[in-house]
Amino acid sequence: MSAEPSIPSVWAREAARRDPQGLSRDRIVAAARRLLDDEGLDALSMRSLGKRLDAGATSLYRHVANKDELIELVVDEVYAEVEVPDPAGRDEWRDGVTAAARSLRAMVLRHPWVAGVLGQVGLAYLGPNLSRASERMLGLLTAAGFEPGEADLAINTVMAYVIGTVTSETAWLSLVARSGKTEQELIEGLQEVREHLTQTPAAREHNDAARYRDDSFTFGLEVVLDGLDTRLRRKA
Amino acid sequence: MSAEPSIPSVWAREAARRDPQGLSRDRIVAAARRLLDDEGLDALSMRSLGKRLDAGATSLYRHVANKDELIELVVDEVYAEVEVPDPAGRDEWRDGVTAAARSLRAMVLRHPWVAGVLGQVGLAYLGPNLSRASERMLGLLTAAGFEPGEADLAINTVMAYVIGTVTSETAWLSLVARSGKTEQELIEGLQEVREHLTQTPAAREHNDAARYRDDSFTFGLEVVLDGLDTRLRRKA
DNA sequence: AAACCCTAGCGCACACCGTGCGCACAAGAC
DNA sequence: GTCTTGTGCGCACGGTGTGCGCTAGGGTTT
């Protein structure tokens, strides 16, 4: 019985061997990111996250103030994935912005939980990684010929378009996922409802929903870029 | 003691007099809407909503399947507030779309909790009121000269822009509200951080943040409309 | 070597959440 | 009258975020 008090320390050492240096802000954020990617926003709780790290839920609070702060940190981490190209010639700004916008959209589609968090609490507003991305985008647009003030507005426009798109896209995709039906079935059922409602038969059918989403995104992006282009020409 | 069993019925009658016809789907949705407007998304729980209606939390489930369904219903209700003008001459489509977009933005700013819900679960995708609004917008754009397929894409573009904008706006406003500081102070603090980060002094200052947001929205909207316009001209 | 403090981690507890279940009672059907 | 139907409620279950106070170990100071 005299050995019993030492058991906790044995456990601690065992745990330390498994997880090299115990908990840490970085390890927590990384684990949260994996949990979110694997199981979605609802599956993230301090308890479930603690389990992933062989730690108690409240231990996390030594390294992270809030669940909200945690999410801010994770969101900023994934923002690191969006790539904004270097500014090239004055005429290639379109390609640069296009690439950046596609990269942002791809990032959110890779981590759909981000969309669920964007509208909320005001999180994630300006971690360093998002800051960096907008800074680079600003470079892209000033190189294109926009004055600083307008470049700022232009960025907001492009970002708003992309965010709005992915918000709708992820909402739809999550509905598809939860419904169990295929995307095609769901669309057809939907058109049926709408026909009943409006009494006019719905015309268009798309046999490849994912392709349609891509095309739709591209269309809108082109529209936005055309709009920016006219602003640019109007000045010259 | 023999009178005791009748007390509940007395209460019921009392409650019925206060609240004319007891609970009902409509009354519940209306109360939820008020609660959301008054106290925000986090304040809405089945219990708090029950309290507002002098009812137990679980009584609501007789009229509403889920909290999620409830939210869908409330969201669709506020969509009724967005006004899309009738299609006028072929040249006034810009004014029509502008009015619709402003109306949608104004609605969300009136009910900021909507933004917190948009990205999530896939709720609110197509209640009758949202359906009606898009239908009317479709009319606006086909009257402008778009073919049905393109009109659909054009709607998506405009909607995505507006949704993206209000998402960012409400997130920012909620951060301002929670921080306790004024918007101006917060902006200055932010610029300071960014200067430290990028080593370049931030130039622009806006002394009226609300005005700036309006201008920014208008700028982006004009860009989108210009983009649509070029598409329209290119055809003619 | 001994005394100290600092901190990471944990368990407990609190107040709250969404919601399934079964009972009580009012209103209408026969 | 009895019977059915539907409405509301209380209870309970298994979850949530997080404050509090304890322990035990590592590092620093004497």
How would you characterize the overall build of this protein?
The structure is a homodimer of 236-residue chains. Chain A is mainly α and 236 residues long. Chain A has 2 domains: 4-64, Homeodomain-like (Arc Repressor Mutant, subunit A); 78-235, Tetracycline Repressor, domain 2, CATH 1.10.357.10. Chain A has 10 helices and no strands. Chain A has helices at residues 7-18, 25-39, 46-52, 67-79, 93-110, 113-118, 128-144, 148-179, 183-198, 209-235. In chain A, helix 7 (128-144) packs across helix 8 (148-179). The radius of gyration of chain A is 23 Å and the shape is flat. Mean pLDDT of chain A is 86; it is low at 1-19. Chains A and B meet through helix 6, helix 7, helix 8, helix 9 and helix 10 of A and helix 6, helix 7, helix 8, helix 9 and helix 10 of B. Chain A binds a DNA duplex (30 and 30 nucleotides) through residues 8-9, 12, 22-23, 45-47, 55-63, 66-67.
Q: What is the correct CATH architecture of the largest domain in chain A?
A: Orthogonal Bundle
**Number of separate strands of chain A:** 0
Helix content, binned percent of chain A: 55-70%
How does the helix and strand content of chain A classify structurally? mainly alpha
Order of helices and strands of chain A: HHHHHHHHHH
Indicate the proportion of strand residues of chain A: under 5%
Q: How many structural domains does the protein architecture of chain A include?
A: 2
The CATH superfamily of the largest domain in chain A is identified as Tetracycline Repressor, domain 2
Return the CATH class of the largest domain in chain A: Mainly Alpha
Largest interface: A-B, 60 and 60 residues
The oligomeric state is homodimer
Overall, the morphology of chain A is flat
The total of helices of chain A stands at 10
Average pLDDT over all residues of chain A: 86
Which radius of gyration of chain A do the C-alpha atoms yield? 23 Å
CA(first)-CA(last) distance of chain A: 88 Å
CATH topology of the largest domain in chain A, by name, is: Tetracycline Repressor, domain 2
Instruction: Pick out the low-confidence regions of chain A.
Output: 1-19
For the report, how would you describe the main beta sheet of chain A?
none
